[in-house]
Amino acid sequence: MDTISTPAGEVVDALGGSAIYGALSGSYFCPVKIVGVLGTDFPVSGLELLQQHGVNLDGLDFKEGKTFRWSGKYHNWNKAETLNTELNVFADFAPLLPCSYKTCNSLLLANIHPELQLQVLKQIETGAHLACDTMNYWINRCPEEVSKVVSRVDVVFMNEDEVKAFTGRTDIFSAAREILSLGPQWVIVKRGEYGSVALSKNEMYFAPAYPVKNVKDPTGAGDCFAGAFMAYLSNCKELKRACIKNAVLYGTVLASMNVQDFSVNGIIGRNKAQIDADKELLIRWTN
Amino acid sequence: MDTISTPAGEVVDALGGSAIYGALSGSYFCPVKIVGVLGTDFPVSGLELLQQHGVNLDGLDFKEGKTFRWSGKYHNWNKAETLNTELNVFADFAPLLPCSYKTCNSLLLANIHPELQLQVLKQIETGAHLACDTMNYWINRCPEEVSKVVSRVDVVFMNEDEVKAFTGRTDIFSAAREILSLGPQWVIVKRGEYGSVALSKNEMYFAPAYPVKNVKDPTGAGDCFAGAFMAYLSNCKELKRACIKNAVLYGTVLASMNVQDFSVNGIIGRNKAQIDADKELLIRWTN
């Protein structure tokens, strides 16, 4: 649950968190299953919203106590200042996957401690497309564990600062090559308002950001990108460039929808036709 | 003549200036004619180089005295700190076009005082594609004159900071719309390492930057972009989106070649096949 202040306004104890942003975004492309822990103060309306989006909640753990809370303030649109983090019931969370989750087509390890990401990876049966997100906090504090996760997934999501911090390189292209040498098939370098670049050993794909008139709240944009991306990939057998391109474009569209409103309000109740229309515009603007 | 220091090295009294960067870049796409003033200290080798590139020098004015000099230092790759500017023979320059220049297909008003740009515009016969570049220095000091130039050209080249400063808007898309309302058909917003966006009233085209491993000297990148862009357009009757797209891509390729070496060394002695191959890669990476 997030308390967020941006130049466009603020919200208190609003629905948030990587898993929820990712699940709602992904729900437009495949049935989504979510793993996480909630306190008893989590609003029932949040669970109803996930269910309306067809999200399977079997992997949610409900614990006596308060839900994880984050509070941040955006002075500009690029970076939030963290005002407060309360782990609460998340403090001793150990992700345990229901049996029905272990044979998924596509797994997104959203941004948490890399040790927890590794615990989830151990529970997944082979055959799924695996992806991880992370953040500078983990890259700085436990780089070896992040490397371990990176070496075991097919797709890595990082922003420009993160690929540079993780590799010590000063340009994103040599940084991406170094990450690819650890094992992943694709690195997706996110560049905020400048879009993203998907890189594999032999291929590259540049996508612009979808132009947004009034940004209200950038929180969760990366999670929405990754959620839509991986949910779309659940329909692809191999991670060929054409699939990655579509995944990037859908990720871009959902991220742009997300930043136009606070909390998850930008990504709920959308329809697939609208999403496809935005994706077609992105293609038109780059062709 | 430029004296430049970057994290990759330095050069003293090297060939430079918007007109020279633009002319050499443009020379790969059409015969170029150049207008400007030089002091008697200007090296003959510089004139030879322009002639080797087929550049017509009839519009060059040679004056007793020293050539214009600029000296700058790049602490990072995005922005130069001006250490020194000596106007020298440029101080009382009034551009006078030879008769053979007045019926060109394509005119680039490179970055100088907007009053001088207006003087050139008055000498051009109708029918040419007209474009202007500028910089924050002029936008801040003589915004009305810049507006006058902008309202009389077909294509405006500005970077992100410049479109924002010129319009007072905080996002490039509404800034571009405001600039278009003054008259131009296209605004080309340059975003450095993030590429560029071409915008008209009803169309948009996003291009990435060409990835460069070792940047040595960013000086003149914008001039190379604009020079290649306008020289390519001299072959186009109307400024349709397909022409603008090609112009942007050629501009991008020449700008990327330029930053890989000091002074004009990155853009001389190239061949068209190499330029076309780089352009095709840009298309492949965005398709």
Low-confidence stretches of chain A: none
Query: Strand count, sense and closure of the main sheet of chain A?
Result: 6 strands, mixed
| Gross morphology of chain A | globular
- CATH-defined fold name of chain A: UDP-N-acetylmuramoyl-L-alanine:D-glutamate ligase
Any descriptors?
10 helices, alpha/beta, 287 residues, 23% strand, 12 strands, homodimer, UDP-N-acetylmuramoyl-L-alanine:D-glutamate ligase, 6-stranded mixed sheet
Word description of this protein:
Two copies of one chain form a homodimer. In chain A, a hairpin with a 5-residue loop joins strand 5 and strand 6. Chain A has helices spanning 18-26, 44-52, 114-123, 136-141, 143-152, 160-167, 172-180, 221-233, 241-258, 272-286, and strands spanning 2-6, 9-14, 33-39, 56-63, 69-74, 80-86, 106-109, 129-132, 155-159, 186-190, 196-199, 204-207. Chain A is globular. Chain A is built from ten helices and twelve strands. The first copy, chain A, has 287 residues and is α/β, with parallel strands linked by helices. In chain A, helix 8 (221-233) packs antiparallel against helix 9. In chain A, strands 7-8-9-10-11-12 form a six-stranded mixed β-sheet, sandwiched between helices. In chain A, strands 2-1-5-6 form a four-stranded mixed β-sheet, with no helix packed on it. The longest helix of chain A has 18 residues, at 241-258. Chain A has a single domain (2-286), classed as UDP-N-acetylmuramoyl-L-alanine:D-glutamate ligase (3-Layer(aba) Sandwich). At the A-B interface, strand 12 of A face strand 12 of B.
